[in-house]
Amino acid sequence: MVFAFILKRNAKSELKAAFSLFSIFSRNESTILAKEENAKISECCIRASSEQHFQSVKQSLLLYEHFVDESEETNLLQEIETHLKRVRYESTHWDDAILNYRETEIWRWNQQNKQIIERIRKLAFSKEVKSIDFVHVLDLAENGVIKPHIDSVRFCGRIIAGLSLLSPSIMRLVHENNKNFVIDVLLKRRSLYIMKDSIRYDFTHQILGNDESFFNGVKVPKTRRISLICRCEPQ
Ligand SMILES: O=C(O)CCC(=O)C(=O)O
């Protein structure tokens, strides 16, 4: 079944200009130890259009580098391939929000991979929210792009967690009512992001195409990328 998570899309206009209007703050190469899970939250891969903007969203955007190791990535990919092998790449999504991709949903995982999914859910979802039982798997081809959108509130609650496999990419978040409020996130291979509350509801998110894929002025070559997206149930 193809997903219908995507509700809104914004025109691309103004985005390119936004970073030049503000001085861009880049976080120091520092990490904060998250007490609850002993996982490292990385701020160095998050760039906001101003320090004030960064401060106002840092509680609702979390990034964990090296969330899985290489062998865990290999195991996940092996299982995912068995689900994707009969799925064809599509050039465009039903609402034109994604280009050059294929997708599936996985309900049951082998024992090893199930533990990784449980780790994601434990870290991302508090006790008050119920996670959706299946994982959305999105395979974005090298020339694939996810355009700006906000996930539909009909299908997804206040928290979205995504694990990036195979390739780094840039996720751009733009405030719906203030197009100058822009956050770029370097999603490294094997990293996990968690978007919640304000970031999830008030910002569009997108994955930049390879030609626009730069962080701090440095090219981030995006090849084929597979993401595992865990969501919680709508309220
Ligand atoms: O691939 C990702 O990490 C984001 C996917 C996405 O934008 C979505 O499913 O709404």
TrEMBL record:
Its cofactor is Fe(2+). GO terms for molecular function: dioxygenase activity. It comes from the Eukaryota. Keywords: Dioxygenase, Oxidoreductase. GO terms for cellular component: mitochondrial matrix. InterPro entries: AlkB-like_sf (IPR037151), ALKBH7-like (IPR032870). GO terms for biological process: DNA damage response; fatty acid metabolic process. This is Alpha-ketoglutarate-dependent dioxygenase alkB 7-like protein. It comes from Dinothrombium tinctorium.
